[in-house]
Write a structure and sequence with these properties.
Elements: E1 4-8, H1 15-26, E2 29-32, H2 33-41, H3 45-52, H4 54-69, E3 74-77, H5 86-93, E4 96-102, H6 105-112, H7 126-144, E5 147-150, H8 155-166
Parallel strand pairs: 1-3, 1-4, 2-3, 4-5
Helix pairs in contact: 1-8, 2-4, 3-4, 4-5, 6-7
Length: 169
């Protein structure tokens, strides 16, 4: 299978951690869309949001999705909001298997409660912010997914579940 595997889901669901494991297991390159944007812009996602705004960031994110969809045999870790936009779903669906890593909001909170680098969660009560944003994104994520895996388990098990789902095992 030469199709790319796109890992997506809510921030903190384990896309990068699981992606590292999956890349190792499948001998594929892991590419993180947020890291590519940070590298090309020379600043963090938080700084991009503060300096240029979310709309600018989302346009850069779309460009990266289009570029990566044209390649093969990648593990793509997509930013938490990337697949909430139809244009990104459509671009990635062309050459990729879209895998939702599903993790409940309370687990996400436990993983992110000390993280100050997430601009969309820096509004007071983090758990409430996570629940609200999760509720807005959940149906969109599920509709976009070719496969859904349980992300509330050790990363090795999540990676194996993904490999089974996309037909590598």
């Amino acid at each position: 299978m030469n199709r790319n595997i796109v890992l997506f889901g809510f921030m903190g669901c384990g896309k990068t951690t699981v992606g590292t494991e999956l890349a190792h297991n499948t001998r594929r390159e892991l590419v993180d869309t947020d890291a590519l944007i940070e590298q090309s812009e020379g600043m963090s996602i938080s700084e991009i949001f503060a300096t240029h705004g979310e709309s600018y960031f989302r346009d850069r994110e779309h460009e990266i999705c289009c570029e990566l969809a044209a390649r093969e045999r990648l593990i793509i870790s997509a930013g938490g909001g990337a697949l909430t936009f139809r244009r990104n779903i459509d671009a990635l669906r062309k050459g990729c298997e879209l895998v939702l890593i599903d993790v409940p909001p309370e687990v996400i909170y436990e993983r992110l409660k000390y993280d100050t680098t997430r601009p969309l969660l820096q509004s007071g009560d983090m758990l409430t912010a996570i629940r609200d944003l999760y509720a807005r994104r959940d149906a969109i994520y599920r509709e976009a997914a070719d496969h859904t895996v349980n992300g509330d388990q050790p990363r090795g098990f999540v990676a194996l579940d993904i490999m089974k789902a996309v037909g590598i095992l």
